[in-house]
Design a protein that fits this description.
Length: 510
């Protein structure tokens, strides 16, 4: 039985739900146009975005900015897709996505605003289905069908277009949010999820000109094709594994060269220890440690094509590092330790790794923060809330990376449960947002204490074999990025895992 059938057992049930909302709308018709007036009540809408002319991603960012200025409050973002053109095929590849939003604009007012944005961004009439810098379509408006001379909602060709259905479904959860979403499901005879499955569903991602991507640096990264290895560079005197080893610029750069030569895809620079009970240093001290190494790293010829992330929970450090050339912000607090972080990251337009942690490094292992009834469910729920907060600050879901926070406010058994339960965590997030659940997942078990407890290895540097085993389990269980100290051995482990996954039929989200 499809999930739609489980949650919407009868058309009668929907009809009753719809009837209770009729009083908030008035319908007025004229000879040339049909309009609907909304009596100052907010309505939830879905708007599709497409672009294949110029800087496609910048076009999206500009369109989102203009929508917000026009009274469209964006609440959720779909993933980002690069797609082959439909109907008129002799044109560049498109970027496609969609957003959910709240607005008090009536449907025709909303249409007028979107057309104005398109025009201001350089769209002309041109060829139907032809190239355009931006295309903004109303897919759903509240709970109502609209059919006028200038507007049809639901958009008339939704059901035949994978490049529309994929981002639309991202905006849903496997659970029904409310009566509005219930209504959206009813617009399709079999419900949106079943309609998407009939178009190919998740099995079509990565095939037939439809790939899910994350924008980073100057490229669109399809993280599903291979597992990425992130090499750890601790620029601290007190990190639990290698504190003090790389506290000079020279030794740090030598380590960067070594990790790159061993196959690291990403170098993660951290200048503040987040080990249990670590003392917090100031923004300036962190910058003094970080920036000289970041600048020298960017000068290395071999860093070409590699990504640099900055491991920080300070918004000022994130901003300065990105301005110097860092590509990714990696925040162990998910925006909880600096109230400005999420707003700053939204403006930086870079990927954001949001990690699950309770408390801060000095309190994360206290008894209160270690209480879980169901660790995978609670980590999924709490991690989603951080991503939700980021979205409301303007960080699109297509820029988010999920990190369940192995070793942070977790007991040994919790860490093991997470390693075995990455799909479960995705599933819990997917109850609220299928798009967020499809984001890349990063795990960081490297040399952590739980490996020492399981393997009876007191010294962190003796835990590399346990790390390889943890990484192997995580990759086969759905991780897309692994964060490690020992790059060489873990690159080999990841290559084998990827080969096994390819033979077994790799999923876009594993």
């Amino acid at each position: 039985m499809s999930i739609f059938k489980q949650l919407l057992p009868s058309r009668l049930a929907f009809s009753h739900a719809r009837a209770s909302y009729r009083g908030s709308f008035s319908f007025y018709h004229s000879s040339s146009d049909a309009t609907i007036q909304v009596h100052s009540q907010e309505q939830e809408v879905v708007i599709a975005l497409g672009s294949n002319v110029g800087d496609r991603l910048n076009n999206f960012n500009e369109a989102l900015t203009q929508m917000k200025k026009s009274g469209i409050q964006i609440t959720k973002h779909a993933c980002l897709y690069e797609t082959e053109p439909a109907y008129v095929t002799d044109q560049p590849l498109f970027l496609n996505s969609a957003i959910r939003a709240i607005t008090k604009l009536g449907p025709h007012e909303l249409l007028s605003v979107l057309k104005k944005i398109e025009k201001e961004m350089g769209r002309t009439k041109g060829i139907r289905y032809g190239p355009r810098p931006i295309d903004l379509d109303i897919l759903f408006y509240g709970k109502y069908r609209i059919n006028s001379e200038i507007l049809t909602v639901p958009h008339e060709r939704i059901w035949e277009r994978p490049f529309v259905m994929a981002p639309l479904v991202d905006l849903l959860g496997s659970d029904i949010d409310d009566d509005t979403v219930l209504c959206w499901h009813s617009f399709s005879k079999k419900g949106l999820l079943e309609s998407w499955r009939e178009l190919g569903g998740e099995s079509s991602i990565g095939k037939d000109g439809l790939r899910r991507v994350l924008p980073v640096g100057n490229r669109l990264w399809d993280w599903s094709k291979k597992t990425s290895v992130m090499g750890i560079l601790n620029l601290t005197p007190d990190s639990f594994s290698d504190g003090g080893k790389f506290d000079s610029v020279g030794s740090a750069i030598s380590q960067v060269r070594k990790m790159v030569s061993e196959g690291a895809d990403i170098i993660d620079l951290g200048a503040q220890s987040t080990r249990p009970m670590a003392s917090r240093i100031s923004v300036q001290e962190e910058l003094d440690r970080l920036i000289p190494v970041l600048e020298k790293t960017l000068e290395l010829p071999e860093i070409e094509g590699k990504l640099l992330s900055v491991d920080t929970f300070y918004s000022e450090v994130a901003s300065e590092a990105v301005s110097k050339g860092a590509h990714i912000v990696n925040d162990v607090s998910g925006g909880r330790l600096d109230s400005e972080m999420l707003h700053v990251v939204a403006g930086l337009n870079v990927p954001y790794i949001a990690m699950h942690m309770r408390g801060d490094p000095s309190t994360m292992q206290n008894s209160e923060n270690l209480k879980y009834d169901d660790v995978c469910k609670e980590v999924g729920d709490e991690l989603y809330e951080r991503v939700r907060a980021a979205e409301l600050c303007g960080v699109p879901a297509w820029r988010v990376v999920l990190d369940p926070g192995i070793g942070f406010s977790k007991k040994t058994e919790d860490n093991l449960e997470i390693l075995m339960g990455l799909k479960r965590i995705r599933s819990e997030i997917g109850r609220k947002s299928l798009g967020v659940a499809r984001a890349p997942v990063l795990i960081g078990p490297s040399r952590k204490r739980f490996l020492g407890e399981v393997c009876d290895r007191a010294s962190a540097v003796e835990r590399d074999p346990g790390t390889v085993a943890a990484v192997t389990s995580g990759v086969l269980g759905g991780a897309n990025i692994v964060r490690v100290h020992n790059v060489k051995d873990n690159v080999d482990a990841v290559k084998l895992c990827d080969s096994l996954l390819d033979r077994g039929g790799r999923s876009s989200t594993r």
